[in-house]
Amino acid sequence: MVSILHPWESGYDNSSIWDEPMSQVKVEKGLKYKRGDIKVVNPEQRPVSKDYDRYVTIKNHLKANKYNPNKIYKISKFNVIDVGFNSIFLRALKDLLILLNRYRIDTSLLNKYVKKSETQIVKLYNSKKNIFYAYDVKNKKKITVPSITNFFILYADINNNLLNKKIIKNLKNYNKGKKYLFSSIKPEHKSFEEKRYWRGPIWINCNWIIYQGLKNKDKIFSDYIKQKTIDLLNKKGFHEYYSCKNGNAMGAYNFSWSAALYLDLVLNKN
């Protein structure tokens, strides 16, 4: 498994997944930095100041230790094994295998690594609650926050049909009855915030990843997600993220990955 040593590594900076481990980070004294994001986007839609204080504190600590992986893994102020991050990494390894096989390059070592990673990631599944959880390595705690990124496990193409069916069933209940899919955090959770970055809004890349993970497992549902995403973009335009309640566009406008993934969805006939 791969762990991340800073929330920024995940791509979902202020996700509720990080709340507990981040609360244990003691902010550096005399911290000074400037934020550019709140100058171009409404501060109500971005991470709060206390989060940024901790981001910069962690970053400064990593920098002070020269980003030495053998050292900082053990002493980092933040160390979490995340389902979504590992799912994308595992899928990348499997895609690499396809390339290596195409060019007849030895894949024996990578095959062993893929099998080992797949075995380990399944251990993050709680069969009683039918959920995947993250693990706080530093504080030795499970993190059971209902984030849409936990469903990236579908994108990893785990070789377990029974488990995949359970995950898909859970996903269908994630935003059940909602007009817009998928909120980054389940609306019923106490940490949900409709407009704040990765604590509630819809992100097109998340929908795309889940769509890709479902195509070979539940085509009807994957087509439904695809069309709902296309409809949202047709109606609201290419923005950074969107309200899951009314579809209102938020964050940066003319956002390139929303536009790029829209093209991919529209042109994909599979």
Please tell me about this protein's structure:
The protein is of the alpha+beta class. It folds into 2 domains: 1-161, Glycosyltransferase, CATH 1.50.10.10; 173-270, no CATH class. It has 11 helices and 8 strands. The protein has a 4-stranded antiparallel sheet with strand order 1-2-5-6. Helix 6 (83-102) runs antiparallel to helix 7 (108-122), helix 9 runs antiparallel to helix 10 and helix 10 (219-236) crosses helix 11. The longest helix has 20 residues, at 83-102. The model has no long low-confidence stretch (mean pLDDT 96).
Descriptive terms for the model:
four-stranded antiparallel sheet; alpha+beta; two-stranded antiparallel ribbon; 270 residues; 11 helices; globular; Glycosyltransferase; 2 domains
| Class computed from helices, strands and strand pairing | alpha+beta
Number of domains: 2
Uncertain ranges: none
Helix and strand run? EHHHHHEHHEEEEHHHEEH
How many strands, what sense, and barrel or not for the largest sheet?
Answer: 4 strands, antiparallel
Reconstruct the topology from this structure:
Blueprint lengths: L2 E2 L2 H4 L8 H5 L13 H4 L8 H16 L4 H7 L4 E2 L1 H20 L5 H15 L2 E2 L4 E2 L1 E3 L4 E3 L17 H12 L31 H11 L4 H18 L2 E4 L6 E5 L2 H12 L3
Antiparallel strand pairs: 1-2, 2-5, 3-4, 5-6, 7-8
